[in-house]
Amino acid sequence: VQLQASGGGSVQAGGSLRLSCTASARITNYHMGWFRQAPGKEREFVATIHRSNGNAVYSDSVKGRFTISRSNTKNTVYLQMSSLKPEDTAVYYCAASSSVAYNRGSDSFYSYWGQGTQVTVSS
Question: What whole-number distance in Å separates Cα of residue 24 and Cα of residue 57?
């Protein structure tokens, strides 16, 4: 499956952005996730959504501010980001896995990755 991420940009602290990730295949076959990587830091988990029951899991750093959702008809996963902080600045990547769910918060679980979209939050 190929993934195309979009929606990044520059925003002031407290603002909102919505990222989109469109897949070339039916997303109901995949667990979908969002990760991010800031300059000089390792890639970190942001959120994931289960392919069957839609269960969402978030990192502690974004819980309550970000929401992951999906449109099965559009084969698209979204990441609605609100109350953005400068520390949210990073390249955001979407990812997909067809494996049986065991550790959806680990980047090693995902086999397919999008190209990344830059999010910059200024103070």
Answer: 24
